[in-house]
Amino acid sequence: MALFALVLSACASPNRSAHSVNMGRVLPPPDTTTDSGAYEGATDYRIGAQDLLEISVFGVDELKHQARVNSNGLINVPLVGSVMAGGRTIPELERDLATRYAEGYLQNPQVSIFVKEYTSQRVTLEGAVKKPGIYPLTGRTTLLQAIAMAEGLDEFADLEGIVLFRHVNGERMAAAFDMAAVRRGAMPDPQIYGDDVIVIERSGSKSAFREFLRTVPALGLFFAL
Fold this sequence. Notes:
Distance between the termini: 14 Å
Mean pLDDT: 78
Number of helices: 5
Strand content: 25-35%
Radius of gyration: 21 Å
Order of helices and strands: HEEEEHEEEEHEEHEEHE
Strand order of the largest sheet: 7-6-12-9-10-13
Helix content: 10-25%
Low-confidence stretches: 1-24, 215-221
């Protein structure tokens, strides 16, 4: 409910053009994530157990491979062996592998790492789902798939009251979706990323946010908060 109040007050602000509603568009991915879900930012994201890493060395195709972080935080790297990845940032691990490859194998190696599956990333589902909670993302996940992780909508869910919250370009943004339209392919089924929050309103709700949604068709609109 607090999130809904924030959305309503933001949309009511006459002084910020960022609050205008745009129809038929889906939220862009977070700044540090590509459309495919690969991490490519230099933030403080720290690798966790079961994350799937794609590791490559510029100019050495034979060393390109994927490695799953085990429960102890270790990965197995060709020519190098076991390396601790858990708890480290992407740049830290890139520098470590570059140093190890430089010790007798390669000259000035340039190591690049993408996180292909964020098992340690989470999505939060609130409201009218059967099992609200925080769920891990294990690869590319869409809105419908995320709702399925919470065992689907409950009987009181408002199909036009599905709201996705995300941080984009340093701002907290939101997008509203009509689930019936998504299911029949009339609206995109957006990809979900780590730290997204999905809120499902209840049918007949009298919340301030639901009243706002009634004034604007939920056709993939989005706005900054």
